[in-house]
Design a protein that fits this description.
alpha/beta, Rossmann fold, six-stranded mixed beta sheet, 10 strands, 31% helix
Length: 301
């Protein structure tokens, strides 16, 4: 679902103009890969194919596309939850795809993920303080007696009351749970935060507050963020660059400020035409192309 823009972009730092200066300091994901799944009639459907993307330090890369286009599969590859059929992933010039054991454990400290439904990743019988600090204990970064103070610190970071540390996830709203998921992800001080539909299950007001929170935390901690959503308007607001994904491929990549004026691929133009404005012009005909995965609407170049 896509909607009209809200004012959440004031604090977004503009992209660097001199790319050569950033080249050595870039945190990069290069992913030349193919992840295939069996389809009907004995054929196979590539969830992701020939993807090559880079993420610059301190910036946000937005990825937008319809359900089933391969966004979540791509993210799961990045954090090591799935293995690509081919290709590699580089973090600051070092290959992290295929790591195992201690090396993989250390790499995961640098890349953390926030999921669409935080309750799916929370233990229902654990208090918030233990949810926030469990992985800190696992990495031996704190001692058990330090949990209460560390939990309060993390709650303050995401603008939640300190007494939430003693609550259970079931006692919190969706927006509050997502803030806790963000705090937990940032507890390890990662270089990269991946948000997989992190605002999709929230109402408009909660989406706006979470978007503003991510922008603030990025500016304070110099985070690199990959933000995935169906909402092209929201992605455009909080991202420096926007990648459009269709049928497992990146069909367009541009600066966020250029989306409306420079989008060329017909799928991107269709998404832009689907954004409602207030008041909605109901008599206006909306073009809805036929077909869908695995029957392509447009040719994915």
């Amino acid at each position: 679902m896509m909607r009209e823009k809200a004012n959440t972009t004031a604090a977004v730092t503009p992209p660097e103009q001199d790319k050569n200066i950033l080249e050595e300091n870039m945190r990069q994901y290069w992913n030349y890969r193919s992840e295939t799944y069996p389809s009907s009639r004995g054929s196979s459907l590539p969830a992701c194919k020939d993807i090559s993307l880079s993420l610059q330090a301190g910036q946000t890369l937005g990825i937008v596309g319809e359900s089933g286009c391969g966004k979540s599969t791509f993210l799961r590859i990045l954090v090591g939850l799935e293995t690509p059929d081919a290709g590699e992933i580089l973090l600051e010039g070092h290959k992290i795809s295929g790591l195992k054991g201690t090396s993989l454990r250390e790499a995961r400290k640098k890349i953390q993920m926030v999921f669409q439904d935080p309750l799916d990743s929370f233990h229902p019988k654990m208090k918030v303080k233990n949810i926030l600090c469990e992985h800190l204990l696992n990495y031996r970064l704190i001692r058990r007696k330090e949990i209460p103070e560390k939990a309060r610190e993390l709650l303050r970071m995401v603008d939640l009351p300190e007494d939430f540390a003693e609550r259970y996830p079931r006692n919190l709203s969706g927006g509050q749970c997502q803030r806790i998921a963000i705090a937990r992800a940032l507890a390890l001080k990662p270089d990269i935060l991946i948000c997989d539909e992190a605002t999709s299950a929230l109402d408009a007001a909660a989406q706006k507050s979470i978007a503003k929170l991510l922008v603030r935390l990025q500016n304070e901690q110099h985070l690199s963020i990959i933000f995935v959503s169906h909402d092209l308007a929201l992605v455009q607001q909080i991202s420096h660059r926007v990648a459009v994904m269709y049928l497992g491929r990146i069909v367009e990549l541009m600066n966020a400020s250029d989306v409306a004026s420079h989008a060329r691929h017909p799928y991107t133009r269709m998404m832009l035409d689907s954004v409602f404005s207030l008041p909605v012009d109901f008599p206006r005909r909306t073009s809805i192309p036929e077909g869908g995965p695995p029957a392509p609407r447009f040719r994915a170049h």
